Amino acid sequence: MAKKTFAENLKALFGFHKQLNNEFFDDITDSLIEGDIGARTAVEIVDELKKSYKSNESEDQIIDNLIALLAPMVKEISFDPPDTKVSVYLLLGVNGVGKTTSAAKMGVWYKTRMRQPVILAAADTFRAAAIEQLQLHGERTGVRVIAHQHGSDPGAVVFDAAQAASAQGGGLVIADTAGRLHNKDNLVRELQKIDRIASSKADTDCYKKILVLDATTGQNGLRQAEVFHEAIGVDGIILTKYDSSARGGIAISIGKTLGIPMAFVGTGEKYTDFDVFNTETYLTEFTGKKE
Ligand SMILES: Nc1nc2c(ncn2[C@@H]2O[C@H](COP(=O)(O)OP(=O)(O)O)[C@@H](O)[C@H]2O)c(=O)[nH]1
Ligand SMILES: [Mg+2]
Q1: Do both 35 and 142 map to the same domain?
Q2: 1-23 per-position pLDDT tens digit
Q3: How far is the CA of 20 from the centre of ligand 1 (A)?
């Protein structure tokens, strides 16, 4: 059975507790933790909520107070590649989080919003299937894919893709990467070269490192964000599988702990199941606030 969302839990709590006493607030803390907010943050939030609580407050007021407390913790960013510049967006993340799928979705997203070309770079050269997967996406969506052979240097793929964009007077390169994460040293070494090439080929402020996180993995996502942020620095996050996640508190946890902003959400398997992250919408959904 699917896990209850924080919003559903909260609703049940209001029904269950006739009086909003300490027990009620303890239960809110538990629900926040189950929603992947992280224990420490959950306790801090509920302490604040208690402080501002006045008797006879309605459910709606309590949810509004909660949203007001959460809002400053969530960070949000939008990436707008300028038409006449060369931009490189490098997608990072461990295996299976949805990097290749997100690269394809992002390609579709930007293609309809840019005059200049969008190019997918198959820089996950580690798995042959990853190259084919991206090429197939390219065929289906009409977005150009630049790929080299299986096992070739991923930096060279990014180089060629950026070169192709440059030759057309600017454009956006979205680079898929391999998700190997044996240990941090390894990760740093693997990413450093590709990082150097991407930053030298992209115009000023047009190189973005975007971490892809699976919303269903919970607090594990926070750990992944820490590792990648330390290794190469993360400019923004794509939260995938948000459709199958009953939680999503990870956006709050990461914003508060690491200050990394959310950029996009993936909400399904279709190319169009993808949107920019919006804090207000996110908190409305997370808390189950009535609109
Ligand atoms: N439901 C759902 N599935 C997704 C989403 N994004 C990716 N997936 C699925 O997650 C699986 C792994 O995706 P993939 O892009 O290959 O991950 P990668 O290893 O990081 O490149 C695939 O079966 C995708 O269809 C999403 O937003 N929602
Ligand atoms: Mg992949």
Answers
A1: no
A2: 345 677 777 878 887 777 778 88
A3: 41
